[in-house]
Structures are given as structure tokens and as C-alpha cells.
Design goal:
Elements lengths: L1 E7 L6 H8 L5 E3 L6 H7 L14 H11 L7 H9 L7 H5 L5 H25 L3 E7 L1 H9 L3 E9 L2 H9 L19 H20 L3 E6 H6 L1 H11 L12 E2 L2 E4 L15 E4 L6 H4 L2 H17 L11
Parallel strand pairs: 1-3, 1-4, 2-3, 4-5
Antiparallel strand pairs: 6-7, 7-8
Length: 314
């Protein structure tokens, strides 16, 4: 039984930062957002976190050999179509109770076979016992839960919904795209609020189904990185050794190279990176958008402690 530490939550909540921090540990291998490997890696051949294009990266090339005898043995269009027919939030009830639909169950088994071979190859090639998957997507987490030989542990990462809403309105370039310019997805505060509720409630359901999990606030991670990393590692079943978190300082973190897929452009950064809570939304988010987001997501803002003490958290 191998352990997969899954970072789940809505995008723009700090998952890339947490993933990169965990990747500094000697027995941990972070892969970024593995949910996007077929499209952004295999199909689009975007850049890996190491800077090489996916098909030129030695690590991912070796993973493809071990898992499938080479990436070229896979029919990319077929894999993408299979994923689209299995990996959606609306299919979560069938992931929990696949016996409700025989056609879906057949597709699910085919896709799980691909994922199991992929994750096993990552563990073998990396030589690390703990794999961190920062995919964030709830439906993908429910799929990992069904994988044979995997002990799923969930870091349910949350951020103040008003900060998330503001971040989703910003236009940022996708740094992994080599040919042409591509922007990261944007969304309106109203649609983002609905997704905030839906994604987070699905992760609470995952915990209710017995997956070991912790709730981690982005703001707490930035303000107390050593303390929060210690909690995350305890979830994965290992204590922190003396001096092991020496790459974390007062207001900074030292990041190393990575082979992370997709995610925030900061995955291409190495060296010392300053740590500060991004609260630009407090001065930049339009008042009507702040009110709309606050009202529509207030139950979770209250549950996560953002409506107490000015919403600053720990």
C-alpha cells in the first residue's frame, strides 16, 4: 500500500506553493496537477516544471516507459475521451456507487487501470514513498480513492472566498505554453462562488466517506509554514525530523527544481521566494463583488473562520 497525499480545493488557493514546499523533502515527490497530464502534457506537450517540454523531460519520459511502454503506445484522443466520460464532478455519485450504471462502471475500470499504472510508475521512477498530487479537482480525488494499492490522504486547502474571487478575475499568462500566448482561466465572482461551495462540499463528503484529511487555510500556511507543514506530514504518517524544514525561514521559503505539471507559474521559480499573504482583494475587489461573494459563500466563510476577527485567520 502506497500513500498519495492529495491537495484538494478550488484553484487560486495556494496549492502550488504547498506542493513545491513538500517537494523539498527527501522522501516526497511532487508532480503538480496530475489531472492535466493527458491534455497539457501528452497532447499539448507543454513545459514541465524543470523547463523542458513534457516529451523531452527525462523524468516523464521514463514514467511513460515504465507505465505504458512509452507514451506513443497511448491513443491520446481516446484517453482524453475516456477521461471526459469518467472524470467529472457530476459523476461523483457513480464513483461512490458504480454499480448504479454498468456502462459507467466499465469506463471507470478502464480509466482506473491507466491511473494505477501511472501512479505506480511515478513511485518507481522517483524512488520516493510519498507522492503529492496537487490536482485540486474533487472528481479526480474520488477516482484516486478507488485506486487499488493506494492509501489516499487529503489536504483540504481553503482560502477566503473573496480572495479567490478576486484572483479568478485576474488575467495571467500560462507560462508552460511554448507556442503562442495562452491565459489562465478566469471566472466571474458569481460563478466562482458556486464553484467554491460545490468543490469544498465535495471534499467534506470525501472526508465523511472515511478518507483521512485535514483542513488547511492558505493564510495559515503562509503565516506559519513550518507549523502547517508539520500538520500535513503528520497526516501522511511521518514526523518531521530535526532541521528537516530548514528551507523555511522568517517570511521566505527556499524552493528547489521540480517536475510539476500545470498550476501557478510560480512552479518555474527556484531559490528564495518571499512569503506573504496575498490580500490584494481587500483594496481591489469591487464592493458589489465582495458583497455578492460574502453573501453567497457565508456558510463556509463562517465554518472556516473567515468571519471572525476580521477574517485574517491565524
Amino acid at each position: 500500500m502506497s500513500t498519495v497525499l492529495f491537495i484538494g480545493g478550488l484553484g487560486r488557493s495556494g496549492s502550488t506553493l504547498l506542493d513545491r514546499m513538500l517537494g523539498r523533502l527527501d522522501d516526497v515527490w511532487s508532480v503538480g496537477e496530475l489531472v492535466h497530464i493527458w491534455e497539457r502534457g501528452l497532447d499539448e506537450n507543454n513545459r514541465c516544471g524543470c523547463g523542458e517540454r513534457f516529451r523531452d523531460c527525462a523524468f516523464w519520459g521514463r514514467v511513460g516507459e515504465v507505465a505504458f511502454g512509452g507514451w506513443d503506445t497511448l491513443d491520446v484522443e481516446e484517453v482524453l475521451a475516456l477521461k471526459a466520460s469518467v472524470d467529472r464532478n457530476r459523476f461523483v455519485p457513480l464513483m461512490v456507487l458504480p454499480g448504479l450504471s454498468r456502462p459507467y462502471r466499465a469506463r471507470l475500470e478502464r480509466y482506473l487501470d491507466l491511473l494505477e499504472r501511472l501512479y505506480a510508475a511515478i513511485r518507481e521512477v522517483s524512488g520516493r514513498p510519498l507522492v503529492v498530487d496537487a490536482s485540486k479537482h474533487a472528481s479526480h480525488a474520488f477516482l484516486v480513492r478507488r485506486m487499488r494499492g493506494v492509501d489516499l490522504r487529503l489536504v483540504h486547502l481553503v482560502r477566503d472566498s473573496r480572495g479567490v474571487a478576486f484572483s479568478w478575475t485576474k488575467r495571467m499568462r500560462r507560462a508552460e505554453v511554448v507556442e503562442g500566448d495562452a491565459l489562465m482561466a478566469t471566472d466571474t465572482p458569481l460563478r466562482m462562488s458556486a464553484r467554491y461551495l460545490g468543490y469544498n462540499l465535495l471534499f467534506h463528503l470525501l472526508g465523511a466517506l472515511g478518507v483521512k484529511s485535514i483542513l488547511l487555510r492558505y493564510e495559515s500556511l503562509v503565516r506559519d509554514p513550518s507549523g502547517e507543514l508539520t500538520r500535513v506530514l503528520a497526516l501522511s504518517g511521518r514526523p518531521v525530523a530535526a532541521g528537516e524544514l530548514g528551507f523555511v525561514g522568517d517570511g521566505w521559503v527556499e524552493l528547489g527544481p521540480s517536475h510539476a505539471l500545470a498550476g501557478n507559474p510560480m512552479r518555474f521559480r527556484s531559490g528564495r521566494v518571499p512569503l506573504r499573504v496575498d490580500e490584494e482583494w481587500r483594496g481591489q475587489l469591487r464592493r458589489r463583488h465582495r458583497v455578492l461573494t460574502s453573501v453567497s459563500t457565508w456558510p463556509l466563510l463562517l465554518a472556516y473562520g473567515y468571519l471572525r476577527g476580521g477574517g485574517h485567520g491565524r
